[in-house]
Write a structure and sequence with these properties.
Layout (H helix, E strand, L loop, with lengths): L1 E7 L4 H7 L8 H9 L4 E10 L5 E8 L4 H6 L2 H18 L3 E4 L11 H5 L4 E3 L2 H18 L8 E5 L4 H10 L5 E5 L3 H15 L4 E3 L2 H6 L3 E4 L18 E4 L8 H6 L4 E4 L2 E3 L2 E4 L10 E3 H11 L14 H14 L2 E2 L3 E2 L2 E2 L2 H20 L3
Parallel strand pairs: 1-3, 1-4, 4-5, 6-7, 6-9, 7-8, 9-10, 10-11
Antiparallel strand pairs: 2-3, 2-13, 12-14, 12-15, 16-17
Helix pairs in contact: 6-7, 6-11, 6-12, 11-12
């Protein structure tokens, strides 16, 4: 039996109140103080993960009790100490590898310091997150009848670990690439790298709205703690892949723009009769890709540091894709704001987009 663990944390303070009803009666400031001083917890025991090759694995969700907002605002050293304690909890439970989820993979140096302070392997799961996001984009583009080779693609948060890998891989196939992030210098450096690797010359901008407006496909993967993509910025028929947790895409997009397709990147079907022992909002037997990467490496017996640091390797993305297929992990269709995306939904989006374009043409836009 192979063993793994995965570190989770509440995205918002309201998540804690839902998990612990007694917390609903506490002022937010009190609850945040309590979280700051709370030790890691064993949130659940994961059973039933079984590879197509017959290997079985069990694991644990370890709760690092800080919200996304706290992880970005508290002193980095304090946050790192909390994450390291959670990783050591995984080690004590017998895990051979621990995965870092959501903001635990963003803080500091993306897992490097955590790996230096524990005696088990560490991975951020970002390689498989990229792989499944790109697979989802290609699948969605096919359904929406958008040619990847001719498409204009915008990557938001392009200088981050996941964003830069997405941009570099997409640059091999897309017609036009725009990259957006906070630092223009970092964007220019990445653009130079892509020109050398793929021969494509991306546009760069620090204005997210500008990046979105002409894009056929938007990949949102920033580390913002709140939503940053608004409905007014998107063209009819656009595809938006939201890889970020917490979400980058405003729920208003789904409510207001019935002519665009928004889906969550990195939703994976896990092989076996898996029981996560915890409801994190997904259908049974499905998980985030970052969680799945940790399971894949455990099933493969690869108890070694895999995806760490900011410079994500394209070769690692290719390798984890191969290992995922070997053990029976696969893209679990598309999901958008807790709902499965059906073919009927896609058809309606296409029809709405065609009508929106006709109205724009009639107005002379």
């Amino acid at each position: 039996m192979e063993r793994f663990a995965f570190i989770i944390h509440p995205l918002e303070i309201q998540d804690v109140a839902r998990k612990f009803p007694s917390a609903q009666r506490m002022p937010v400031t009190w609850l945040e103080t309590l979280l700051r001083h709370s030790p890691p917890i064993k949130a659940s025991h994961i059973t039933g993960v079984r590879s197509l090759r017959g290997t079985e694995a069990e694991g644990w969700f370890i709760g690092c009790l800080l919200t996304s907002k706290q992880m970005m605002e508290l002193p980095e050293q304090d946050v790192m100490e909390k994450i390291i304690k959670a990783a050591k909890k995984a080690e004590q439970l017998g895990a051979g590898i621990v995965g870092l989820g959501a903001f635990t993979a963003v803080v500091g140096d993306a897992g490097v310091t955590v790996a230096e302070n524990v005696n088990i392997a560490v991975t951020t799961g970002n390689s498989y997150t990229v792989a499944t996001a790109l697979e989802g984009i290609r699948y969605a583009a096919d359904l929406m009848e958008i040619s990847i080779e001719d498409a204009s693609v915008a990557v938001l948060g392009a200088t981050g670990s996941i964003g830069s890998a997405c941009a570099r891989i997409l640059a091999r196939d897309v017609g036009h690439l725009t990259m957006a992030a906070r630092s223009l210098d970092k964007l220019e450096h990445l653009a130079d790298r892509i020109r050398g690797e793929a021969g494509l010359s991306p546009q760069v901008t620090t204005d997210i709205a500008t990046a979105c407006r002409e894009a056929d496909i938007v990949v949102a993967v920033t580390s913002a703690t709140g939503t940053i993509v608004e409905p007014e910025w998107l063209k009819p028929g656009a595809i938006v892949c939201d890889v970020a947790r917490p979400r980058n895409v405003s729920r208003r997009v789904a409510e207001v723009r019935k002519d665009v397709l928004v889906f969550e990147g990195g939703v994976v079907e896990v092989p076996g009769d898996v029981d996560f022992g915890l409801d994190f909002g997904f259908p049974a037997k499905t998980a985030y890709a970052c969680m799945a990467e940790t399971m894949i490496l455990a099933l493969e017996g690869r108890y070694e540091n895999f995806t760490l640091g900011r410079d994500l390797s394209v070769e690692q993305v290719d390798e984890i894709s191969r290992l995922a297929a070997r053990h029976g992990f696969r893209l679990a269709g598309l999901r958008s704001f807790e709902r499965a995306v059906t073919r009927g939904w896609i058809q309606q989006v296409k029809e709405n987009a065609a009508k929106a374009r006709q109205r724009a043409t009639a107005k002379g836009f």
